[in-house]
Amino acid sequence: MSKINYAAMSRRAAITAAALAAMATLGACSGGGGAGGAAEGDMAMGAAEGAKVTVVEYASVTCPHCAAWQNNVWADFKTKYVDTNKVRYVFRELPTAPNEIAVAGFAIARCAGADKYFDVVHTLMAGQDEWRTGAVTPRDFLFRVGNGAGLNNQQIQECITDPDALKAADARAQAAFKAGVSGTPAFYVNGTQVITPGGEGASLADLSTAIDAELAK
């Protein structure tokens, strides 16, 4: 699980806009609510709001543990519970280091539109190794993903430096902090955290135990 440095969050929010603007400029020159309730900015799939069971995931597109969960668990979880509308799955953005890349990635996902949001998020997670290993610059990776979602370079640059979007991103992170979330990925079933010790987030077995118990009530 990736840990969150909340002590630096306020300072980080203050410099995020400048960091993203610098990343976009340098890249161009070089050629790179409570845990269980509804919250502002929630992105969701599956059952409608007010469903009997709501599963909330806090994650970051720069978190390798989140990427591992997406790769190993997401498809089976989605088939079993989301596609069948047995649960409302809510994804909440909680940027982890490198923070400026995470915030920019989430901004691009939102600018791509609600219908493409999850596809962009999953693409960003799946491609982490590309920029981590230096195969591509973070800027080039982000812009390529944004282009693939139908955004042109000007739209992407405006998207990742939009001050209102940056403020909203910080507000979502602060809300996670107030909800007691200390790392990613973090999973909650109807407000109760599900933890699989030693795992990359909650296992499908542990999630199923918690979800099925709630469905049976």
Summarize this entry quickly:
The protein is α+β, with helices and mostly antiparallel strands.
The N- to C-terminal Cα distance equals 31 Å
The number of domains: 1
CATH architectural designation: 3-Layer(aba) Sandwich
Task: Estimate percent helicity.
Answer: 40-55%
* Structural class estimated from helices and strands: alpha+beta
The succession of helices and strands, N to C, reads EHEEHEHHHHHHEEEH
| Largest sheet entry | 5 strands, mixed
Query: What is the third-level CATH name, the topology?
Result: Glutaredoxin
Protein name: DsbA family protein
Keywords: Signal
Function: May be required for disulfide bond formation in some proteins.
Domain Thioredoxin: 34-216
Structure characterization notes:
With 217 residues, the chain is of the alpha+beta class. It has one domain (2-215): Glutaredoxin, CATH 3.40.30. Helices cover 54% and strands 12% of the residues. The chain is built from nine helices and seven strands. The protein has helices at residues 9-30, 64-82, 99-112, 117-126, 128-132, 138-148, 153-160, 163-178, 204-215, and strands at 2-3, 43-46, 54-59, 88-93, 183-184, 186-189, 192-194. A hairpin with a 2-residue loop joins strand 6 and strand 7. Helix 1 (9-30) packs across helix 3 (99-112) and helix 3 (99-112) crosses helix 7 (153-160). The longest helix is centred in the N-terminal third of the chain and has 22 residues, at 9-30.
